[in-house]
Design a protein that fits this description.
19% of the residues lie in helices and 39% in strands. The chain has two helices and nine strands; from the N terminus they run αββββββαβββ. This is Lipoprotein.
Amino acid sequence: MKKLCFLILMMFVLVACSTNQQEEVHYIAKSEHWKAVYHSNTEEGLRLFYLGECKDLGDLQITIEGSKESLTIDDARVNIDKQFALKKKESAKNFKKDAAPIIHIQWQSDNETLEVRNS
């Protein structure tokens, strides 16, 4: 009887552990001047990399269009490494599994659109 109770208890533990696991999501996109990378298993979430040669990009306007929601960030700036990071809690709702978000970036007089794909 003790063995049977132990087995049932272990099955509950295993089921509870397996249902709390979240599947990792990875997205990547690249355009002429920008590269976007999203990993659900990091705190940074979405990272944008500027690939061009311009030293001072000024303020960026970033719009992320998800399947149900969109997010607009005004006055964003890249750091000294030409990167911009958006925390996972801010970007996760647009980067769910099997989503196809689109990122629009405007800087100076330029703009580009990145079509993000699940990798």
